Amino acid sequence: MASRTSDNNSRQQRIAEMRRAEKARDRRNKFLAIGISTVIVAGLVGFGSWLLIEQKQKDKDTAAARKAPVSGEREWDVKKLGRNHVETPVKYEMNPPVGGDHNPRWMNCNGDVYKNPIPEVNAVHSLEHGAVWVTYNEKAAPGDVEALAGKVGKTPYTLMSPDKEQAGTIMLSAWGKQLTVDKADDPRVAQFFTKYVQGPQTPEPGAACTNGLADK
Fold first, then answer.
1. Domain containing residue 153
2. For residue 30, what pLDDT is reported?
3. Where do transmembrane segments lie in this chain (predicted)?
């Protein structure tokens, strides 16, 4: 009888020890889970803060770039250019034109690269919407044309086309602004894009660059 009682006590002690061990294990797992969660949350907060700081820095850099003058660019008094919609041909005082009366329909300018010359009256409407228009003549090297096409192709609110009659090898036009360069890797090309793609010169910021004329 005493032996049976002793066995029962021993079994109860083992069960109690197992329960204590199980509770201790649960506590360790709970603390571990809390610790991991804290680290993950802290990491996410830190990553989010880093992204926010990086975006603010990018915005500051863009704002600074838009204030900096582009060396060698030409400017026109936009008040004298005109902005009427007309169905008749328009004689522009510069080539390529940087503004003036234009056709009611714009050229598609969502990174569109045209292989043939495009109607000026439609391209000018694109400039009114904040697009940068890249043009080139026969002096432009094939590699430069390809590089510019690649840049335009991945940049909304830009378009590109050949212009045999223009004086400069490569010319970049925005509303009231124009820059002439000889090579695609001229750093002023990127500066002109940063400053004038949907830049402060845009008469109609946010206006569409799709659903227009697409004469490819």
1. 74-196
2. 84
3. 31-53
